[in-house]
Amino acid sequence: RAKAEGRGRACVFAPEDEQRTLHRVNTESLLREALEGEYFELHYQPVCDLGTQRIVGAEGLVRMNHPEKGLLAPGDFIDVAEETGLIVPLGEWVLEEGARQLAQWHRELGCDITLSLNVSSKQLQSSRFAGRVAEICEKYSVPSGHLVLEITESMLMNNSDQVLDVMNRLKAQGCLLSIDDFGTGFSSLSYLQKFPLDVLKIDRAFVMDIEANETHRALVRAIVSMSEALKLRVITEGVETEGQMRCIRQQGCELGQGYYFSRPLKAAVFNEWIRSSETLSV
Ligand code: C2E
Ligand code: MG
Ligand code: MG
Ligand code: MG
């Protein structure tokens, strides 16, 4: 198309393409610089029991803290990290940092929360992935059954045989597995049953308007009862207000995550948050 017409013309005909290429090239070098300079940080957002309002777990969310550009959210770089394969070293860093933190919480704070980490499809497709997870868990003495790996619904639907194989290995190693952003893909109920899942996270799209939208309330109730049948725990994402929290609880949801409880926090702030809330379960 426009490309065949020469560089100057391409700019006229497809400015978005050109911009996307530029963004990609810039972001790729930014990612390399950040990996090299160790500019990444893992922030932690609590997952809370809607009945007791206590923390039961956390999700680790990566950020880039660039000396000149400041704090960048995953939306600014994750896509490019996936396209370029840089998500593999970045994902290893996330796993290692998360495992280290999880073991420390258990050891020093004496609290037995779980930690969920997001895994990209590139990582899951690597034959080394399950082995690396095992090595890292061993290295930091991660308490078994407390590391949760989150996989999006769309990842289950592509390359499902290979993904299933890796998931079975992770499961055998003692990891818990979670399906993220549930409800945005098109997986069927019977399809979910193929995978060794422990947790299902309902996408925040259902929560945003839950108080006004009877269809979304009904869908959330249906997902909850389906999850009971499949023996999955349910976490509702994106809970921002007390009204939404009450409403999802009324639909039978047990656990929630969102700004209502807390934004994702730097490790030191999160640790304070844990200390000051009555969560110590020992
Ligand atoms: P996700 O795994 O679905 O994570 C939830 C996202 O929703 C996070 O955005 C979180 O900050 C945001 N969030 C939490 N509560 C609320 C709320 O009440 N309202 C609203 N509007 N948003 C809320 P974040 O941190 O920008 O991450 C975006 C996505 O980037 C994540 O979605 C995940 O898919 C990806 N991601 C984050 N960290 C990693 C990572 O270490 N590895 C990989 N592969 N992907 C990651
Ligand atoms: Mg997630
Ligand atoms: Mg999600
Ligand atoms: Mg998401």
UniProtKB/TrEMBL annotation:
Residues 24-278 form the EAL domain. It comes from the Bacteria. This is PAS domain S-box-containing protein/diguanylate cyclase (GGDEF) domain-containing protein. It comes from Marinobacterium lutimaris.
